[in-house]
Amino acid sequence: MCKKSLAAHGSQSPLFLRRVRMSELKSLYEVADAFARDANVSKAESEVRYRRSVLDPEAFWREVAQDFEWLRAPTRIKNTSFDLNDFRIRWFEDGEMNVSVNCLDRHLADNGDKTAIIFESDDPNAPARTLTYKELHAEVCKLGNALRNLGVQKGDRVSIYLPMIPEAAIAMLACARIGAVHSVIFGGFSANSIADRVADCGSKLIITANEGARAGKYTPLKKNVDDALNLPGTTSVQTVLVVRHGPSTVDMQMPRDRWYDAVMDGQPETCAPEPMNAEDPLFILYTSGSTGKPKGVLHTTAGYLIYAAYTFKTVFDQKPDDIFWCTADVGWITGHSYVVYGPMANAATVLMFEGVPSWPNASRFWEVVDKHKVTIFYTAPTAIRALMREGDAPVKRTSRKSLRLLGSVGEPINPEAWRWYYDVVGDARCPIVDTWWQTETGGILISPIAGATAMKPGSASLPLPGVQPALVDAAGTLLTGEAEGNLVILDAWPGIMRTVYGDHQRFIETYFKTYPGMYFTSDGCRRDADGYYWITGRVDDVINVSGHRLGTAELESAIVLHPSVSEAAVVGYPHDLKGQGVYAYVTLKEGVEADDALAKEIVALVRKEIGPIALLDQLQWAPALPKTRSGKIMRRILRKIAENATDQLGDTSTLADPAVVDQLVADRKNH
Ligand code: WT7
């Protein structure tokens, strides 16, 4: 169990100390009376709910489940155990429902004409497009019918590789309607990454677009799919549906490739929803771990939907008139839970934005807020830091009067960025919910409840109802009171992932073996004297770059594909904008000369292998890597060198050749 040593948190973690001064632990922002007055949940109510949810989770979730439309109401609510000898996670297990019915049909009577999606294009001059719930329902039904005609059946996997356009939500919901399991692949992944993901789950069909646009630049999505399907292992794919989006032409390979609008044409606007057992799979989403290839995180039907919906309504204090904008791409879990499923299960109006924060200028986010009267805005710290660097003026020239609540997600937010977000963007008027969660958790686990929880800049604050976090030391001993350690969750909540697709053993090993009987988050965390949680960052070999997870093992495998490279080790290091950057140590083969051209080739290779999101920020040539006598790379030391904390290298006596470290330190100084 090597994770224990990786996870060791003897003292305070340097990343955390760099971000949060100790005096910050006491800084408290009470909920404003004006907000609390109309809030869905009061402070007292939130405390009552939490106690009830923990004392009697059955009763708590039974009541929440009543707000959903069931084909067959569940009688059994919670059947879970993290005990390795008796492991099971089943929620609402004898219930039957269809997720798309809960997100669409159920709203038609009262909210049919309410706007479901406002689409804002990358191009600020393009007219906005909107779909009402009635229209969205019709599109989803048409696509559901089209998919069935193309032979997609319940349980089949469908990959979705689309830009942030309404068709992405339509495609997800259409899969849910017919019981197909979707696997959304972020548009920033390359052909190789698509191929890996398609091969792993054996998708029958891919839905893509001719192109995607970001900051006026075009991504050839269809071309990437073509390249992926030329790679081995992808023969399961029978059909590629291509959404027309933007002007570029593409090669259509008949009969495999079909235009989306052609297959939609003439389809009926109703489609019989597939009855799904509560524990039937809803989707797979690939995410990076410490080892090997990305794993297919599998979420199921009722537990996931109910958890996404409940947390959306609770955390964001959602009201019928809200215009909710989550800037995350649907290629990530945040887009699944808080662009599509959570909001739509609550009949919310969501804004989908294809562009980026800084294009055509640094006011874009706030212009879109004003244009569509956005009331709740949810983004990542990396975007906030990037915009903060542009100063207050681009913000202040917009009104933002419609905003009433702000959210943060994806990585720890530094108090300085939090205050800028609060004071400048929110005019010191809007509470901030700093939401901690993971792809694996399905929905938010630790966060303030808007209107109920006093905020501390930089802290995700307190667990939501049904969530029992705890801190353990490296040996797995539970820590009490004020403490810093590894964050675990003691009992299951409805939104927890059920398995790693095709590899249940890996699921158990990754999350439940390090600390037997507990879900291990792989995050370090501090709990302060008020019981507030402060996430300190990953303690495994996952790097969180701009809120996106990159696995060091994947990056290293890509680097060593270069014929001149003999070995590589990748670590994260603190990065002002991205939170963490990627630092690569590369050892070349005997006789190969290191130069800038070679470094560029390696950077380009990683980009090609994984995708544009996998950028090596720093590359240092390493004559050799520091290893133990048993040949294990000492990443702890490499992290310190990357951080430029060469005075804190610690014990190097167990190294096979301590001189290696001196060389790396000397080279780092000249780097
Ligand atoms: C990792 C999960 C589901 C959110 C999107 C990223 C980090 C996420 C926070 C936060 C501090 C955070 C953690 C976590 N993280 N939100 N509010 N404060 N850290 O999902 O790609 O599965 O990454 O993101 O390290 O383990 P993900």
TrEMBL record:
CoA binds at residues 214-217, 334, 546, 607. GO terms for molecular function: acetate-CoA ligase activity. Mg(2+) binds at residues 560, 562, 565. Its cofactor is Mg(2+). Residues 105-491 form the AMP-dependent synthetase/ligase domain. Acetylated. Deacetylation by the SIR2-homolog deacetylase activates the enzyme. Residues 50-103 form the Acetyl-coenzyme A synthetase N-terminal domain. It catalyses: acetate + ATP + CoA = acetyl-CoA + AMP + diphosphate. Residues 554-632 form the AMP-binding enzyme C-terminal domain. InterPro entries: Ac_CoA_lig (IPR011904), ACAS_N (IPR032387), AMP-bd_C (IPR025110), AMP-bd_C_sf (IPR045851), AMP-binding_CS (IPR020845), AMP-dep_synth/lig_dom (IPR000873), ANL_N_sf (IPR042099). Its EC number is 6.2.1.1. It is an enzyme of class 6 (ligase). The modification N6-acetyllysine is found at residue 632. Keywords: Acetylation, ATP-binding, Ligase, Magnesium, Metal-binding, Nucleotide-binding. ATP binds at residues 410-412, 434-439, 523, 538, 549. Belongs to the ATP-dependent AMP-binding enzyme family. Catalyzes the conversion of acetate into acetyl-CoA (AcCoA), an essential intermediate at the junction of anabolic and catabolic pathways. AcsA undergoes a two-step reaction. In the first half reaction, AcsA combines acetate with ATP to form acetyl-adenylate (AcAMP) intermediate. In the second half reaction, it can then transfer the acetyl group from AcAMP to the sulfhydryl group of CoA, forming the product AcCoA. This is Acetyl-coenzyme A synthetase. It comes from Lysobacter soyae. The gene is acs.
